[in-house]
């Protein structure tokens, strides 16, 4: 009995020593990185802490402090703490994302999403560097206005209403204001500068972003409107706007989704399902985890659904408003958002997305059509590290429309050109290769 107690005590002491060693070594490494990059202090700690108690382990790994610290610490102590793994990765350490990290990675998706474009220094390219020079964009918008003045109300559909809520006056543009010369965007750097904002946590890579490949993907809807074709839902249904009425879902992102669904159904003839249940009523952090099984079930119950749209609104500094003048109406700007399921160091194993190429092609074709028909409407496509449930359907869009300081009117005004561009891409009319 005494021997068992001694053995247990020895095991506990050993575990405590090993844990203290790893923690102190990490602190030492951090301090030393700020000084001269040497290895004297960590080596000293290893000798003091391990030689008296774990001489075999110490001598077996003599001179390989980084292996012990990097491998054993990451695997033993931090495997259950992906937040720290994520931070370490940004410092050049290896990442060991295990299956048990999955739920916490979903939490990171929900809590991290709002920090997309506020800190411009984190972007590979300045988020304000639009796909078009501002002077050219202004000229194209003016040209749009001149073109629209020559259209009659009967020809352009002015005066049509959708469920009595459509703002008067929007005219779907029939001629492009701008046409891309795709041969000029064959290079990776040129394409990224023209279309993307890349978050510092991830890296796209030339294998994912090739204009020819992105344009070649067939995004046309193949089924009939007899059954559901498009699903709209809101991972963050509690998102509201400057003039939203507390407790009134009609003035939140859900109400904007209602309006977009009505446009797609009544003006363009699609069969649209709008799912309005909340996934973030208690907390945003696990909203993606909460929505995942529900969306999986909806897609299983309605296998005719070909398009999935997760509609959000962005979060911006209060002094920056995402609004433009489109046909004389204040219109919220939109942004397409892609999760790459990979950090700057490589793929996140347990956030695999078999439809990543399709997702990227869909957002790219939407962006190209927006830029050609409604210059200035779409901000650049944002690329970030996680997955955001975009692995459930090839034709999936995560759309950030406006921000918290936009009005409901501006949001609904943005739904008009967005619905038109969706129809252009889903019908196969645009973009032209």
Keywords, separated by commas or semicolons:
42% helix; alpha/beta; 433 residues; 11 strands; two-stranded antiparallel ribbon; 7-stranded mixed beta sheet
What would you note in describing this structure?
The termini are far apart. α11 links the parallel β2 (230-233) and β3 (272-274). α11 (253-266) runs parallel beside α14 (408-426). The radius of gyration is 26 Å and the shape is globular. By secondary structure, it is α/β, with parallel strands linked by helices. The longest helix is centred in the N-terminal third of the chain and has 34 residues, at 2-35. It has 14 helices and eleven strands. The chain has a seven-stranded mixed sheet. A two-stranded antiparallel ribbon has the order 5-6. It has helices at residues 2-35, 40-50, 55-60, 65-77, 82-90, 102-112, 134-149, 153-156, 188-195, 211-216, 253-266, 287-301, 356-373, 408-426; strands spanning 196-198, 230-233, 272-274, 307-314, 323-326, 329-332, 334-339, 342-343, 346-347, 381-384, 395-403.
